Fold this protein.
Amino acid sequence: MVFLLYFCEVIKKETMIEDVVKYVKEVIGADDERIEIVDSGALMAMSRGEKVTPREDLTWEGVPVLFGKEGMETHDGRIKINADLIASAAYVLGRGDELFGDCERDEHGRQIGKKSLLGRLGWTERPLVDEYRRILNHLTNKTNNEDEFKVILTHDVDVLRRGGRMATFMSLMDVRKSKHWTFDWMRMVSEPLRRKMKEKCEEIVFVKASYGLKQAKEDEPTYNLKGKDFCVLKDWCRKEGVRIGLHGSYLSGQETNLLIEEKNRLEVALCEKVTMQRNHFLRQLSPANLVTLEKLGFEDDYTTGWADCVGFKIGTCRAVRRLDLVTMEVGSLRTHPLSIMDCTLTDEKYMGLTAEPAKDKAIEIAKVVKRYGGELILLWHNHTVGKGEAHREIYKRIVESLVKDV
Ligand SMILES: [Zn+2]
């Protein structure tokens, strides 16, 4: 009996690995019978929970590969690749570095991008997985889907108006007069881009729903979804066609009960199902958080990105399905990798760039995303735009550059 159970478990695992292989092949464009990628065994080792150590000295066609060997043979139109592109892509897409590697984290528990595997390889600003696809497409004479390029402008609403001593007095004022009400300004800036890109440019506002619940100091100040300020924002979003998602609180990544309550509260306030999410502080400490999100009925997550540097945390700028390297499961939740967060560019503790180089860096990343037909996801907080000219200027220049370039 025990042997039978063990046997069933092995069969189940192998089937699931096959699903992972099939999905990763689609993502990297290796789902072509002319391509054979030699299995290094790394994926099977990951499925058994064994510690796998990615190689940092192997490249294929100039792109780092984490598992496998050198060499590629072509014969009768068939291509045999010894570099295990499937295990390498799966490892990056599934955040293997955080699961199996020596992951360095900051004071909020988030992986430090500059010290991650991709950081060590000098590949934070190049989408490794998309590069595999580009080369494989070239080898099999396929097109590169550049026309799938999309721009998603997102705004996390951490605060709607200023807190502190003047909060009670200020609450009498129309929230649209608050310096944090920059939504109209951002909408005005993006108007030419939206007009040009049509349905390929969209805007999402992520709102907090943790008012009155257990919170960390990082969540304060917050706002009541039953209050008139939020009603004004909700009405504005509806009028403008801006979608609303949940901005899960600082603690909600660790405490599922909080996430359930926050989702429920937002659904009641909006009278609709909430399917999109991004964690406050980009605080998604483990790929396991995605499993929770999927179980709770979320369909799209926008958290995946580093706080300390811009770039491609899971090696792609395209939306991908959740990949669990522990259970070898391909989930239904779509992960939309964040490209650039406003404070990442300028904060001293992150990249510390001044306005001009910050704008140049953002445009550089936008060009990479466009080249790979990905989603350029910008995170500009309404309050950082309200705080000063620098972020207004950077945002305006990026959007203007996109209007010229798309
Ligand atoms: Zn936030």
DSSP finds 15 helices and 14 strands in the chain. The longest strand covers residues 68-75. The mean pLDDT is 92. The longest helix spans residues 2-28.
